[in-house]
C-alpha cells in the first residue's frame, strides 16, 4: 500500500466534508468506485475509510455503504433529560425500537444493586435507539417492577421518564454513572449494523427515586461518533 496515496485519499474526503461538498448523511461512492477513481486497491480504500471512521468523519452501515457522519449529539447526564428530549432539543428526530421485553429473575448482581432478594422478578428491556433513522445506541435495562407495577403492559418504546411522571407520579432523582471507552461487543455491533470490534462508549447508569430506591439499571453501548458527553457543574 502506498502511504502517499492512502493519505491523499483521506485528505480528499477530509476536504469534501470540511467544505460541505459532502454534507452530513451523504452517501459516499462505493469502495469499488473510489478505487477505480484513485487507482487504488479495495483493501487500501477500505483502510483509508476505516481511519476516517475512527476520526468520526464517516461511518459504515453493513450492506449499505459509507456515509458522512452527522454532528454528535451532546449528552449532559446532570440535566436529567430523556433521550427523546435532548435529541429533539438539538434539532434531530429520535426513535426507539423495542428488541426484547421479558420478566426475568434478578441475578445476584441486579438483586444487590436493587436491594432485592435474588430471584425477584424484574423487567428486562432491550432497545435500539435512533437519531434521524441512524441506529446509534443499544440499551439493556432492568426495571424494578416492585416499584412500578404494571409497567410491562405499557408501550416501552416511549420515554420512560415521561411514563414515570404520567402513570406513577415519580421522577428520576439521583443516579450513579459510569463511562468507559471500549470495543463494542459483537451483539452491539450486529444490532447497530457496523463492523465488529469498533470502538464505542459504554455507559452504565443506576436511577434512584427520591427516597433512594433503585428504579432501573441501564447498560448502554453508543457509537463512538454519535455522542459527546458534556457535564455542566454550577455552584
From TrEMBL:
GO process terms (BP): negative regulation of DNA-templated transcription
Protein name: GntR family transcriptional regulator
Xref: Pfam families: GntR, UTRA
CDD domains in UniProt: WHTH_GntR
GO molecular function: DNA binding; DNA-binding transcription factor activity
UniProt source species: Marinomonas alcarazii
Start and end residues of each HTH gntR-type domain: 3-71
Gene3D superfamilies for this protein: Chorismate lyase-like (3.40.1410.10), Winged helix-like DNA-binding domain superfamily/Winged helix DNA-binding domain (1.10.10.10)
Domain of life: Bacteria
Key words of the record: DNA-binding, Transcription, Transcription regulation
InterPro entries per record: Bact_HTH_transcr_reg, Chorismate_lyase_/UTRA_dom_sf, Tscrpt_reg_HTH_GntR, UTRA, WH-like_DNA-bd_sf, WH_DNA-bd_sf
SMART domains: HTH_GNTR, UTRA
The organism's taxonomic lineage, starting at the top: Bacteria, Pseudomonadati, Pseudomonadota, Gammaproteobacteria, Oceanospirillales
